[in-house]
Every structure is written in structure tokens, then in C-alpha cells.
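Honest question from a wet-lab person: if I give you the sequences of every part of a complex, can you actually get the arrangement of the whole thing, not just the pieces? Trying it with mine:
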Amino acid sequence: MNLYEFEGKQLFERYGIAVPRGCVVRRGYDVAHEYQELGIKNVVVKSQVLSGKRGKNNGIKFCSSADDVARVAAELFNSPVRGQYVAAVRIEEKLEIAKELYLSITYDTSTKQPVLVYSVRGGMDIEEVSESEIQKYMLDVRQEKISLNIPYAEELWRCFLQEDARLVEINPLVQAADGKYVAADAKIAIDEDAGFRHKEWTFEPRTMMGRLPTEREEMVKAIDAGEAYYRGTAGKYIEMDGDIAILFSGGGASIANMDALIKAGLKPANYTEYSGNPTREKVYALAKIVLSKPGLKGLWICGGVANFTNIEETFHGIVDALDEIKPTYPIVVRRAGPYEAEGMELMRSCAERNNLRIKLFGKEESMSDTARVLAEMVKN
Amino acid sequence: MSILIDHNTKVLIQGMTGKEGAKAAKAMLEYGTKVLCGVTPGKGGQEVEGKPIFNSLKEANAQFPDITTSAIYVPPFAAKAAVLEAIENNIPTINVIVERIPIRDTAYFLATAREKNIRVIGPSSLGYIAPGIGRIGVVGGPLVQEIFQPGSIGVISRSGGMTNELSWQICKAGMGQSAAVHVGGDLLMGTTYGDLLKLFQEDAQTKAVVIFGEHGGWYEFEVVEMIKNKQFTKPLAVYVGGKFAHLFPEGMTVGHAGAIVERGQSAEEKDRALADAGVMVAARYEDLVTLIQPFA
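Yes, you can. This is the full assembly:
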């Protein structure tokens, strides 16, 4: 999960990395007042988004009066950055810059270990800096100290490890006119799989979809929360613009099937996948939310030949939701694996008692072919 | 002959007393895999499927010194310690079934395993199978006899479900598999496509290989390098899922943990690089079978 700049800077401060003095304002705040409280004349006003190149996309402005700051902040709140929703605006002191550097630590998939990247050419996209001006240091996640003569390398390393980050990046790392180093920006992605050892992780809701998380997305996320977390995954739901409801199984099949769905000329209403061995209750909760989206024209329940997911148990959850909602649009089911006969029988009797327009397929029919079947049914 | 598993493979299951561990023990034994024992701290003296449970790897090793493979079924927070224990006890092959292990823990045990030349498959791997010989994990589930047949195709997949699905398509077309390996969907893979291609290259039974890949990550580009360097010379067909991922912003994870929307790592970019290297690229996953059929 990506953090906002202001959240990243809070973490940096905890590890001894200096950040510019500043404050965070939200929609509805008295921005002029906050600026005056801050008591700095020349400031930078920055959109808080989850990704995106803010500098090049009008997400960063310079101001030097209360009126200015208030006007600019209002503008920024109404200007998504490359489709990313602006959750807040940070107002901070404008630094007197002598030098701009680049520093990051992330995982390298070829060494399967962290790599520290440092460049004296900061302030721009690291992809645009020539290889000769980039220094890479292969690290070992087991080492405590890294002992490099690079400003904040040690602090950033501690932050990377202790915060279970997948990425920590300071770009630019500014050397101010007085010689001191300051992190002018902060980009951190945390590893949600390490949540069990970070009870302090209580971040505000967010999505990278360029809007606030929808009510359905928040509700689905709650399905896997707490005790139920490891009893299979049923908490993946991304709301999309189309009208075909999706209940996929398995991470791999789900992406192959999204490709197939779009190839068949259909538009997904959501991306959803449940996997592992979720309980009937979890799948019921998921299915109910997926089917609650208005304007649906079809439902595709699809997965490969399961290894260990119990088809009867998971289909029971879907059937519970179908019994309640009784959709009138066409439904196509394709699934195989443990207890497939029992699962299909549940679907069949559910279709009968609710008069559903449903077609059921096992492993004889390929997944992509059943997308075309649904497309035909939706057309007619 | 086959890769990773043969008639001498002897298996220990860490976490065999748990629900999934016990199921896996049964699945492996039913398929003829030699499961010798299990380890669960504090449960020493119990039995699962008639096999003894020990409190530690050390105790298990004392009685069964010839264990070749450990399959790990423990909760994510206990995974690092379990894998390190297997490494300390010199188990040559470790299959990490556990999902949602923090990446820092994975990097830790992968570094330690590499120093001791120990092979780790996974994390988030459902296991692997050499049809007719044995399986580690529950690959194939209860339908294993229908969807796997001994044959000449090597199968590598980022997805557990798709390992089965592809293998089934291969059987349906009248072919069979030399081995099928689910490498897992995490960002860090203990055993990569490239590592497996090296094994398949040496394996006389394998005539051709299919890979189910995904958007995100670097691993398909490792394959491109290997082909260019002639380290792998057998026919290879690849499907890379996630063509739709451009509908989502950069940095978002859509699918497995390793399937991150990233510039330079999209399904289309991987397809192009693979095709340029002469790999047969499938537009739909079903096409893998048609592409590979002439070489089986």
C-alpha cells in the first residue's frame, strides 16, 4: 500500500531524516489560517496523491501570501494528478536548494534482496537519469548496518526494515544552502502482509483508482479483516465502469479471464477474485456486495480446475446471495475441482427455484469460451 | 526421469498437524509420494495419516536422516522460522506453500538458503508434480488422475489454478507433462522460470515447455536472456496474463502480489520481448496447447 507524502514524512522524522517544516490541510479547512499558524512566508503547496508525477502535472505550486495559498489549495483539491484523487494538501517551507540528490531502497527481483539506489541527479524521474550517474548498492536484508558514505542511507535502511516497506524513496533529497540535508519528498510503499506485526498501521482509506474508495470497496475490504484474515481471501473488489459482475477464483485465472472478458466485447463492473479456501459466509458477503451494484447486465462466475478450494462451500456462499437477490440478467458459471458435482448441484437447484437464466460449465469447456457464451446471452 | 521429484524423494511436512498440512499429507500419500513424517512444535508423539510427528526438524532428522524435501504449511508469521529451521537441518529442497509471508521474511530465508545451496520453491506455491511419480503439495487436487498424465511437456505457472488448468488442456489434447511446477505469485520467487528452464533443458523426458506468466516483475525478461544466450533451446510457448491491466494506474497490484502495474513490465511489453527472442507467444492461455502440440 502506498503512503501519502505527509505520512511518509512522519515516518522519516521518526528515523531521524529531516523534512521541511509544514502542515497538512484537508477540504473545508481554513487554509489561510493554517498558513499563518505555520509562520513561514515562502512555501510550497503540494497535492497529496498516491502516485504520479506531481511536478510535471501541476500538483506543486509556490506561494508567499495567505490569499495565494488559500486560492492555490482550493485549485489543487479540484485537480486530480494523472487521475489520482487529491486526499489532502501539504503546505511546507520552500527550501534554499544547493543540490538535489536521489536516494531509494526497494527489492530487486534478480538478487531477491534490497537494492539502494543513489544519484547526484535528483529531482527528476530516476528512469530518465543515465546509468553512469546512478550508483546501485546490493544489500542483504539480514545486515543491520550498511555503512555507506551517503547522507541518510543508514536512517533510510532502518526505516525500510523496521517499517516493513517495499519501497522508500527520497526524491529529491535536498542539500540546503546551509549544507544540511532535507527530504523534500517522501514515497513509501508498505507491505500489508506484515500487518500482523504493525498494530500501529491505522491509515485512512485509499484507492489508486483516482477517486475515494467506494462504499462497496470498503465493505469488501472488511470481509478479510481481523480473525478471518487467513481463512481464505474474499476481500478483493475494485469497482469499474462496466456492467458485467465478476466473481473469479484464483489470482492467475482472474487476470486471464479479465483479458478474455474484454476480448469477448464485455465490460467488467468490477474486478473480484476469491482464493484459498474461504468460508461460505465470506463468499456470501462478497457475492452480495458484488451483485449490489446497480445496472448489471450479466454475471460471470469463473475459475480454473481448483487444487483445494472447496467448490461446494464457496458456491454455497454465492447461492445464498443469488437466493436473496434473484438476478434477472444472464449468468454463466465455469468451475471445476474438489466437490464440483455438489457445487454444481447447488447452482442447479438455486437456478430452478429462482428461475435464473444460467448456464453451467465444468472443465470440458475452456474459460475463455464461456466468456463468449455470456456475451451471446447478454446480447439476446 | 523428471525434474525436482523422483522415486527417491522423501518428504517431511512442517505443520502437518494443521488442517491444510494434514490434507496435503493425505493428497501426497494417495499419489504415491513418500511422506515420512511431520514436524509441529509441541505436538511430538502424535500421528497424522499414520506418520509420526516430531517437535523439531532435528528430532525428525535423527530418525529419518534421508529426507530430501520439506513442504511448509505453517501460518505466515511462523514461516520464516520454519524455513530457517529446514535450512539449518540441510534439507536440500524446500517447498514454501505459505501465502502472505512478509517480503522481508522471504528475502531473509532466500538469502540464507542461497548460501547453503538449498533450493526454495515458492513462497505461495501450491507445489509441483511429476505425473506418475509423485507430487509435493496438493497440485491437481482430487482430480489429479484426470488432469495429469506422464508426457513430454514441462509446465511452469505463476498461478496454482492455472497449473491445473493448463495441464488439463494438455491432457485433453492427448499430451502429458514431464513435470508441472507452481512457482507462486509473490514478488520474490525462490525458484524462477529461468531456474526451471535450466532443469527442463537437461531433462531428457521434456521436449517442450509452456509458461503461464503475468504482468509485473522481471522474470519473463530472464527467460528472454536465457533464450538469447542459448541456455534454453527447446520449444517454448508463453502466455502472459494481464493485458487489461492498463485500465489501472501504475503501482497498483491487480492479481497476485507480484502482479504490479509497472511501466516496462506490462503483459504487452513482455509479449514483445519474448516474441523478439523467438518464443511462441499465446494470445489466449488456451492457445498454449495448440502452439506446443507439434513438438510434444
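Two things worth pointing out. Chain A is about 30% helix and 25% strand. The domain at 21-93 of chain A is CATH 3.30.1490.20 (Dna Ligase; domain 1).
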